[in-house]
Amino acid sequence: xxxxxxxxxxxxxxxxxxxxxxxxxxxxxxxxxxxxxxxxxxxxxxxxxxxxxxxxxxxxxxxxxxxxxxxxxxxxxxxxxxxxxxxxxxxxxxxxxxxxxxxxxxxxxxxxxxxxxxxxxxxxxxxxxxxxxxxxxxxxxxxxxxxxxxxxxxxxxxxxxxxxxx
Length: 166
Description:
Order of helices and strands: HEHHHHHHE
CATH topology: Four Helix Bundle (Hemerythrin (Met), subunit A)
């Protein structure tokens, strides 16, 4: 008589085996996502290329870095309640009065019309923010000031999303 065979039930994998399987799955997913970009060309940059002479490109990039630093300073000053100083920084480094210091008239002829329009809108928004920050100094209502700062930053995002200089 043949021995009685009991069906074999698969055993549950050990915690260590499950951990190895999860790690293998995670690595597979990472490679699947990263490998096409690593092996192929990066996605095309669809933003409009603005060709500028090298010195003007360097000047424009320096201006944009200063704009970013000014926004950081303005944010820090708002956080500490120094609304008047935030207004001063915004107007002198970002607002309409900053256009002369940044060489706006010199740069404008080399920019596409849309880029000029966004840049002008950013400078106007910064001047409006400066007024809102001064108002907040009096009435301690930061809502309009933060909305104004968001408008400035929205112009930066719009320009960087549409144009590139290199």
